[in-house]
From TrEMBL:
It comes from the Bacteria. Transmembrane segments: none annotated. This is phosphoenolpyruvate--protein phosphotransferase. It comes from Roseisolibacter agri. It is found in: Cytoplasm. Belongs to the PEP-utilizing enzyme family. The lineage of its organism: Bacteria, Pseudomonadati, Gemmatimonadota, Gemmatimonadia, Gemmatimonadales.
């Protein structure tokens, strides 16, 4: 199967009834970026920039970051999109040179965009580096952990200010949907944000109020839980009302059982780990959009993730 998938890897992922789904990759460094074209990745839906900041004593400066983002953009070539996520630390990912005061609940504390908005020097250097690197490819930027319009606007304003100062063309700027707040108000965010990328790992932990790192909860933390699916549906309808696209970059996008549900919910782009990209594309090609829409409807009416999985298994042949 793997050989067949790889042979077809360069072809688009189109359903039997001619619906195209973009299949892109999640990456965490330059080396992974180089592997994306070979597996048929149509771009990068999530570059986790934490690697640039981890395991060092001081923050990387603007020039150093520019060189790294440029190298990644060049590895992808001029036609593949590169969605760069701004720094997402805090929560379970602390940094020695960005100390956060003691927090009773770090996952509900100063993390993602909340943290970078409080460290404008670090945020500004990263935003400038992303903007400077944007001439090397098809670069977009997104903010993690957005919960309020005020956070989005503050981030977007900083981008616009630096863009004007640098005198470079505008690039698409979007938000990650990882909180119920962002999903429920997606229609309002979509008036201003260029795109959405659903981070199902965090969206699931916050919706179910179950820590994604707690091994005892692991069997229950299922991103196919209908409550999460309702939030994805809401995100898609809010986005599409304003002509914005929606990707999924959480682990759910690489779960072959979830693919028919996500396609049926109208998700435009699936971003999976590099080695899984060919299998996700192959899975899309076995599907029909009309059947997936019915699957999604049934999944939204299910009572838990296990029932959603049963519905998919009954309706769609498993990839062997
Ligand atoms: C997510 O939360 O689904 C996501 C893609 O971000 P991370 O896993 O890096 O928190
Ligand atoms: Mg996340």
């Amino acid at each position: 199967r793997r050989a067949t998938e790889l042979a077809a890897a360069g072809q688009p992922a189109t359903t039997r009834d001619a619906h195209r789904v973009e299949v892109v990759a999640n990456i965490g460094d330059v080396e992974e970026a180089r592997r994306v074209p070979g597996v048929g990745g149509e771009g990068v839906g999530l570059l986790r920039t934490e690697f640039v900041f981890m395991e060092r004593r001081t923050a990387p400066d603007e020039d150093e970051q520019t060189r790294i983002y440029e190298a990644i953009a060049r590895a992808l070539g001029p036609d593949r999109i590169l969605v760069i996520r701004t720094l997402d630390v805090g929560g379970d990912k602390p940094l020695p040179y960005m100390p956060i005061g003691a927090e009773a609940n770090p996952f509900l504390g100063e993390r993602g965009i909340r943290l970078t908005l409080n460290r404008p020097d670090v945020f500004r250097a990263q935003v400038r580096a992303i903007l400077r690197a944007s001439s090397a490819g098809r670069v977009a930027m997104m903010f993690p952990m957005v919960a309020t319009m005020a956070e989005w606007r503050a981030g977007k304003e900083l981008v616009e200010r630096e863009r004007a100062a640098l005198g470079v063309p505008a690039i698409p700027v979007g938000i990650m949907v990882e909180t119920a707040a962002a999903a429920l108000l997606a229609e309002r965010f979509a008036r201003e944000a260029d795109f959405f990328s659903v981070g199902t790992n965090d969206l699931t932990q916050y919706t179910l109020a179950m820590d994604r790192t707690n091994p005892r909860l692991a069997p229950q933390v299922d991103a196919l839980h209908p409550s999460v699916l309702h939030l994805i549906e809401r995100t898609v309808s809010g986005a599409h009302a304003h002509g914005r696209w929606v990707g999924v970059c959480g682990a759910l996008a690489g779960d072959l059982t979830a693919v028919p549900v996500l396609v049926g919910l109208g998700v435009d782009e699936l971003s999976a780990d590099v080695p899984i990209v060919p299998a996700v594309k192959a899975r899309v090609r076995t599907l029909s959009l009309a059947e997936c829409q019915e699957t999604a409807r049934l999944a939204l009416g299910a009572q838990d993730g296990a029932e959603v999985r049963r519905i998919v298994e009954e309706r769609h042949a498993q990839v062997q």
